[in-house]
Design goal:
Layout lengths: L2 H4 L10 H7 L35 E10 L7 E10 L2 E6 L8 E4 L3 E5 L1 E6 L26 H9 L5 H17 L2 E8 L5 H14 L2 E6 L15 H8 L7 E6 L7 H10 L4 E6 L5 H8 L15 E7 L3 H10 L2 E4 L1 H6 L7 H6 L5 E2 L11 H23 L18 H15 L17 E5 L11 H8 L5 E6 L2 E5 L2 E2 L4 H19 L10
Parallel strand pairs: 1-4, 1-5, 6-7, 7-8, 8-9, 9-10, 10-11, 11-12, 12-13
Antiparallel strand pairs: 1-2, 2-3, 5-14, 14-15, 15-16, 16-17
């Protein structure tokens, strides 16, 4: 008997898609229009969605789309094909021959790699929008209801394992629907091994690719096994190097005992991740780490295994060390601007010839939609650069770009941040991040015929400047179709939403916080 089932955690059924749709017809899940594989009657019947995708030997070809590979060696094509066999990309190019393959008609669509979110707190899904007007810390107007006191210290400690599961599952499915095929889930909800197992299972059951970030027990719930339980977690859940979900060790340097987390992570051969930002007074500690003098022994330092989130307010010397050792930096630009993390260090990174990956951070304040992440990153960088240029010669209506001022970001730049950079920063670039033969097929098909995009004139510009979740037509993870013609497959969203709402109600009640749909800070 499944322990998680005993605790009331909802499960995704693994029966055939046709049986699933029949069984759940009363819930309003529709199967209309799922006919792209109609050329292969053995694969699709009666308008059902394509079956067996992602399985060994199963071949299909995405035909006739505008293909943006994000791989300079593969290139981009106004019209081309992507051939997939099993979970891998076999070939990318125009007029591919694949007589034995099923066909996905991608004419009028953009075909590109799935987006990669390198920092997201999915356990907070039930608290969406609660902190829309709030800040990271208390002390000023806007901080009366703040992230630190309410989300981490009040709500998080009352989560049960079943709350963790449904939050992780629903948050994962929501981003899959948005075309985010990979996430680094920074999970700070490890009150017990059962909480940890529920979080991992929720992500795995969603069927997306992920790096599971094993962080602390928010609120320091008594009896938690962090960070020592990392050894068991790795052995039990991450023994294979060939699976959709991998493991990252979390070690927040503002928490007592972070040194042990870093040491365990490095002993296990894991990346070590941490939020780094000035509002929590981390700069002196981070400077010591940059000088190789961190930790209780004074010997802990930065390395290429580090992934740092935000990196606001750090010293020039620390930044240079991050650059020199090859550590990675994830920016959550909309959240950093809204919640007073500090100005996103996009210009600092440019001055060091570094590039970030992008991340959504917390849905308690802002959407995890990746079109928003890309646009916000491009907009703030261009705003800063444009003003630097205008200020350089106020008497010149259009002054030249001064030396040392970076070029404005382009739509292609932020697409690279949102795909290939994310894969590199999570050590997944050999598997995903671009449409490259022999990589796994993490692919999104975007509708460029839609009212908000047509006519298509420039592919990167259309994706970044015009599109939103409604344009994400089909999503593929490791060759398996997870969203088809605008609908997620094999999930009863109505049932899962009821489970999420029940979890929300429990969390508010247990935390002693009154639900108020029109509360203002």
């Amino acid at each position: 008997m499944c322990k998680l089932c005993d605790e009331g955690i909802p499960q995704i059924h693994s029966s055939s898609r046709r049986d699933f749709l029949r069984a759940t017809a009363a819930t309003g899940i529709a199967a209309a229009g799922l006919d792209l594989f109609a050329a292969r009657p053995a694969v699709a019947h009666d308008g059902d969605a394509p079956e067996d995708t992602g399985r060994r030997g199963r071949r299909y070809i995405i035909r006739g789309g505008s293909v943006m590979s994000l791989d300079p060696e593969v290139g981009d094509f106004p019209q081309a094909d992507v051939l997939v066999e099993g979970k891998k990309i076999v070939a990318v190019g125009p007029h591919l021959h694949a007589d034995d393959a099923g066909v996905i008609d991608a004419r009028g669509r953009i075909v590109m790699p799935g987006f990669i979110d390198t920092h997201h707190h999915q356990f907070e899904t039930a608290l969406r929008s609660f902190l829309a007007d709030g800040l990271l810390l208390p002390g000023t107007p806007g901080g009366e209801i703040n992230y630190y006191q309410y989300i981490l210290l009040t709500f998080a400690p009352v989560y049960r394992p079943q709350d963790v599961y449904i939050n992780e599952l629903f948050g994962s499915l929501s981003q899959l629907d948005d075309g985010v095929t990979t996430v680094h889930d920074i999970s700070q909800i490890h009150h017990s091994p059962e909480h940890s197992d529920a979080a991992i299972k929720g992500i795995m059951d969603s069927g997306r690719r992920a790096a599971f970030g094993y962080f602390e027990s928010a609120g320091a719930v008594a009896g938690n096994k962090y960070p020592d339980d990392a050894v068991r977690i790795k052995k039990q859940w991450f023994s294979s190097s060939d699976q959709l979900v991998t493991l990252i060790m979390g070690g927040e340097i503002y928490l007592p005992g972070y040194e042990n987390a870093w040491k365990i992570g490095r002993q296990l051969g894991l990346q070590v991740a941490a939020h780094i930002l000035s509002p929590f007074g981390m700069r002196p500690t981070f400077d010591l780490l940059a000088h190789g003098q961190g930790g209780d022994s004074g010997t802990l330092g930065l390395g290429p295994d580090n992934l740092f989130v935000h990196m606001t307010g750090m010293s020039d010397a620390a930044w240079q060390k991050v650059k020199d050792v090859g550590a990675q930096v994830s920016l959550a630009v909309p959240i950093e601007m809204n919640m007073r993390h500090g100005t996103p260090p996009i210009l600092k990174m440019a001055s060091l010839h570094m590039e970030p990956s992008l991340s959504s951070d917390v849905e308690v304040t802002l959407t995890a939609d990746f079109f928003t992440q890309m646009r916000s990153t491009m907009n703030i960088q261009r705003a800063l650069v444009n003003q630097m240029i205008l200020d350089s010669d106020p008497n010149n209506p259009w002054p030249p770009q001064p030396p040392g001022v970076p070029n404005p970001l382009t739509t292609r730049d932020v697409l690279r941040y949102a795909t290939l950079n994310g894969a590199k920063h999570l050590r997944l670039d050999k598997k995903t991040g671009s449409l490259t033969p022999d990589k796994e097929a993490d692919i999104v098909i975007l509708d460029a015929t839609a009212l908000n995009v047509a006519p298509l004139n420039q592919v990167p510009g259309a994706v970044v400047s015009l599109m939103d979740r409604t344009n994400v037509e089909t999503v593929i993870v490791a060759g398996k179709v997870r969203k088809w013609k605008g609908q997620l497959l094999d999930v009863d969203l109505k049932h899962l939403r009821r489970q999420l709402e029940a979890s929300r109600d429990h969390i508010f009640a247990a935390a002693g916080i009154q639900q108020d749909l029109y509360r203002s800070n």
